[in-house]
Design brief:
alpha+beta, CBS-domain, 3-stranded mixed β-sheet, two-stranded antiparallel ribbon, 5 strands
């Protein structure tokens, strides 16, 4: 299974922010849309990710206030990325290795979407569920051999 399979199911809705926007405005968008991340774009290029992790660290550092903080000062400016053709197992390894919950999907310099650890876990569970159902159906429909001798009862 590849990232493109997740994006196909998830859809293409993206929420972005610019690096010079106030952090407060980004938090309003995240709360309003009930999302845990925003892609930071500048002049059409991916320049970072803003997730609740960076937000919490910034608020704690600023004694519990957002203040006049701008996105650029708190964003992850080197986020993990993948391509639509990246295998899901590789994405899992990458996300677990960096403790990343969100990953932008890039096709060259074009942002295709963002996948979350939830999206990856759901795809894996759905795939395993499908495989289990197919195996159970196969076992249930196991063909009986015509030339088999009847079992003797002792």
């Amino acid at each position: 299974m590849k990232v493109v399979d997740i994006l196909r199911v998830k859809g293409g809705t993206l929420f972005t922010v610019t690096p010079d926007e106030p952090l407060k405005d980004s938090l309003d968008v995240m709360a309003e849309r009930d999302i845990g991340s925003l892609v930071v774009m500048e002049h059409g290029d991916l320049v970072g990710m803003l997730t609740f992790r960076e937000v919490i660290q910034a608020v704690v550092k600023n004694s519990g206030a957002v203040g006049s903080t701008i996105v650029r000062t708190v964003m992850d400016d080197a986020p993990l990325t993948c391509t639509p053709e990246t295998e899901i197992d590789e994405v899992r390894r990458m996300m677990l290795g960096r403790h990343a919950r969100y990953m932008p999907v890039m096709n060259g310099k074009t942002l295709m979407g963002v996948i979350s650890l939830y999206d990856v876990a759901k795809a894996v569970v759905d795939s395993q569920d499908f495989e289990n159902r197919m195996l159970k159906a196969y076992i249930r429909d196991w063909p009986v051999e015509e030339n088999a001798e009847p079992e003797s009862k002792l």
